[in-house]
Design brief:
The chain starts with 7 loop residues before the first strand and ends in an 11-residue tail after the last helix. Helices cover 36% and strands 23% of the residues. The chain folds into two domains: 115 residues, NAD(P)-binding Rossmann-like Domain (Rossmann fold), CATH 3.40.50; 254 residues, Dihydrodipicolinate Reductase, domain 2. The relative contact order is 0.14. α1 links the parallel β1 and β2. It has 424 residues and is of the alpha/beta class. The radius of gyration is 22 Å and the shape is globular. The strands form three sheets. A six-stranded parallel sheet has the order 3-2-1-4-5-6, with helices on both faces. The protein has a six-stranded mixed sheet with strand order 8-10-9-7-11-12. Strands 13, 14, 15, 16 and 17 form a five-stranded antiparallel sheet that branches. α1 crosses α11, α5 runs parallel beside α9 and α6 crosses α7. The structure holds NADP nicotinamide-adenine-dinucleotide phosphate. The site of NADP nicotinamide-adenine-dinucleotide phosphate has 27 residues, from α1.
């Protein structure tokens, strides 16, 4: 292990957007006492900005190198990332990762390995890039009961929505522009289908509430079916559509999480979070509301969060997961309801969707753009029909917070809403 005089030796696994961003920041700050001692990548034929002898193509060599003080895992393969990170934790190593998809699937197991073998795992970069939300929840709010943590956790879909609002353009051209700008993957499903922000919501739930959620059980609705009509419909009401991920405590004490497009007015601080930016609202019982905004992706912003984790590991930091022993139950979807807006160009499809979601025909409405529908639907129906809704190209947005059904309310749990007006 490095003494105060020796630089901390880092093994860097992955030298893409995040790996290079991190490397660059370390190089620019020699006074930090860090040295990227070894770098592992995958493809030996790729041109690199550093001499070839700086790289190995076998990440396992870094695992076997006991002279490395910290391993930074920033590869784009979730299965391989899990293999590497779990192997490192079994050796009791100190590890930083940015891989949210891997963390959302394996967090309980990784935390167990950390505890069993005395290592440490930090992952600030995995949620909202440069925004220090995990450490804020884990350390600063470790004993603050939280009403809700919600926000815009995906910069790519937010960029598309912003450009559609600004240009009045349709989804396709806005997505193509996001891809050309490097804000969206070639395969946009993870971002636009809201799988990526769902992973982040799952990770935040562990720190905000001590709850380890199964990502498959968290409803995620994306924006693949959004059109200019939806943006215009919102704008005519002084609103915008944003993809909002939320984890919240319900009046019955249970925790609910979901990610969907949402119609928001200017009273919400998320209203002005535009382009590739992310925003996180934390509503504490005693502390009151807090709002963090920053860059959710990109080499330098994400590399900055990785660096903060490396330095924190040198100081001996571990996440506390302080709320885990008192973690509340997760609210089953069958007692939740959501006020939604639905649109499809074909009214026949929309009528069929109403039957899926237990909405009456009277839910149909018209505006200058055609037919849409609104109404309160059981969340379970959205969960059960989410694949069909996606396949049919139906755009669904919520018009307010998730709430307990009337049946649940009658049983004494009451109705709780995040007080966004207080946050304006
Ligand atoms: N990009 C962002 O802004 C951002 C933000 C937050 C979190 N993240 C997360 O950070 C991670 C990295 O993302 P990225 O955007 O930097 O990805 P990227 O640009 O695609 O780079 C991935 C890197 O991983 C290397 N790699 C892949 N498999 C490997 C293996 N088996 N062994 C060694 N190296 C391997 C690749 O090697 P080659 O160079 O040989 O191809 C490449 O250098 C992902 O988990 C991502 O979700 C990214």
């Amino acid at each position: 292990m490095a003494s105060d005089k020796q630089p901390l030796r880092i093994g860097l696994i992955g030298f893409g957007c995040v790996g290079q961003g991190f490397y660059d920041i370390v190089q620019q700050q020699p006074g930090l006492g860090l040295a990227v001692a070894r770098i592992a990548v995958k493809n030996p034929d790729k041109p690199r900005p550093l001499p070839a002898d700086r790289f190995t193509y076998h990440a396992d060599e870094l695992l076997a190198d006991a002279t490395l003080d910290v391993l930074v895992e920033v590869i784009d393969d979730a299965a391989e990332a899990f293999r590497l990170v779990s192997a490192a934790l079994r050796q009791g190593r100190r590890v930083v990762t940015a891989n949210k998809a891997m963390l959302a699937r394996h967090l309980p197991e990784l935390v167990q390995l950390e505890q069993n073998f005395g290592g440490a795992l930090l992952y600030e970069a995995a949620v909202c890039g440069s925004i220090p939300v995990i450490r804020t929840l884990d350390a600063y709010f470790s004993h603050e009961p939280l009403r809700a943590v919600l926000g815009i956790f995906n910069g790519s879909s937010n960029y598309v929505l912003t450009r559609m609002s600004e240009e009045g353009s349709d989804y396709g051209p806005a997505l193509a522009e996001a891809q050309a700008q490097g804000f969206a993957e070639t395969d946009p499903a993870l971002d636009m289908g809201a799988f990526d922000p769902r992973s982040k919501a799952v990770i935040l739930a562990a720190h905000a509430y001590g709850v380890f959620l199964n990502p498959d059980e968290v409803l995620n609705l994306g924006i693949e079916a959004i059109g200019a009509a939806d943006i215009a419909h919102a704008a005519a009401r002084g609103q915008k559509i944003k993809v909002v991920a939320s984890v919240q405590r319900l009046p019955n004490g249970r925790v609910a999480a979901l990610v969907t497009p949402q119609l928001l007015g200017p009273e919400s601080p998320l209203f002005t979070v535009e382009h590739e930016f992310n925003g996180v609202l934390v509503e504490g019982e005693y502390a009151g509301p807090q709002f963090l905004r920053g860059r959710g992706a990109g080499g330098h912003p994400t590399g900055s969060a990785v660096l903060a984790d490396v330095l924190a590991l040198r100081r001996g930091l571990r996440y506390g997961y302080a709320k885990r022993p008192t973690a509340p139950a997760v609210q089953p979807a069958d007692e939740l309801a959501l006020d939604v807006y639905l649109r499809h160009a074909d009214v026949g499809v929309l009528r069929e969707v109403l039957t899926w979601l237990e909405l009456p025909a009277a839910a149909l409405r018209t505006d200058v753009h055609g037919v849409y529908a609104t109404g309160v639907v059981p969340l379970l129906r959205l969960v059960q029909w989410r694949d069909e809704l996606r396949a049919a190209g139906v755009f669904v947005a919520r018009r307010g917070e998730v709430r307990l059904t009337e049946v649940a309310e009658a049983a004494g749990s009451g109705h709780y809403q995040v007080d966004e007006a207080r946050l304006a």
